[in-house]
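Saturday, quiet lab. Running sequence design on the structure tokens for the scaffold JK sent over.
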């Protein structure tokens, strides 16, 4: 190989190395960009995709695929938390498939709490539509950030951080939240820890929380798994 072609080869491998490094170190801030105008999810397709669905044939796509009428009704808050979450994600609104975003309507009874949870795939932005709501999250440095918000105020929860909202007003409250993922996922701490299937062994939870196993059993019973 002459000098010229060995320089060319080295240059090629250098560029290749650069691309590989760039690929593995680039942060991914949201779902990937879409490759076409739209890809309305075919929820019945048998092929499985990671956080995504194959597209319906364009000939079967209609206006109704791009409109979601699920947020006009109050969510059911008749549960131990006093909260009702209506999800407008790809599963309820297939037109969101590949578009990298979704929304929730969250209803609170007076005193209701949207329990401590995190979204592994999305940052959350929200707005208070009705009432007065305490919004809080905890950073990975274990700092607790919180504020009581009124109607029209907005908040943001950085991706993956544990957070909650509590209705601290005298009446009902409503928030609308949005996510930079078509399916942000939710790890709800009380049910993840105390109502998983199969359950986390009591001795593991007892050591984690430095509590007696009777306390663990009592908490589990609140979620119907003891
Ligand atoms: C609120 O935290 C939500 O996930 O909708
Ligand atoms: Mn959330």
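Result came back. Writing it out in full:
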């Amino acid at each position: 190989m002459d000098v010229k072609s060995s320089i060319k080869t080295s240059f090629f491998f250098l560029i290749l190395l650069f691309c590989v490094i760039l690929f593995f170190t680039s942060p991914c801030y949201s779902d990937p960009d879409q490759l076409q105008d739209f890809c309305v999810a075919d929820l019945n397709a048998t092929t499985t995709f990671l956080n995504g669905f194959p597209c319906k044939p364009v000939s079967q796509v209609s206006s109704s695929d791009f409109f979601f009428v699920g947020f006009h009704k109050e969510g059911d808050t008749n549960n131990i938390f006093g909260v009702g979450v209506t999800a407008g994600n790809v599963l309820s609104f297939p037109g969101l498939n590949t578009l990298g975003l979704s929304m929730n309507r969250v209803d609170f009874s007076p005193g209701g709490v949207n329990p401590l949870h995190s979204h592994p795939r999305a940052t959350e932005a929200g707005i208070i539509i009705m009432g007065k709501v305490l919004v809080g999250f905890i950073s990975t440095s274990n700092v607790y950030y919180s504020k009581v918000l009124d109607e029209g105020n907005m908040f943001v929860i950085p991706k993956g951080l544990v957070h909650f909202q509590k209705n601290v007003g005298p009446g009902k409250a409503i928030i609308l939240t949005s996510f930079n993922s078509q399916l942000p996922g939710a790890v709800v701490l009380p049910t993840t820890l105390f109502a998983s299937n199969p359950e986390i062994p009591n001795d593991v939870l007892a050591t984690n929380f430095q509590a007696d196993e009777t306390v663990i059993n009592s908490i589990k019973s609140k979620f119907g798994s003891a």
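Notes for JK: Confidence is low (pLDDT under 50) at residues 18-27. The beta strands are 83-88, 102-108, 113-118, 124-130, 133-138, 144-149, 154-157, 162-167, 173-179, 187-188. Ask whether to fix the surface positions before the next round.
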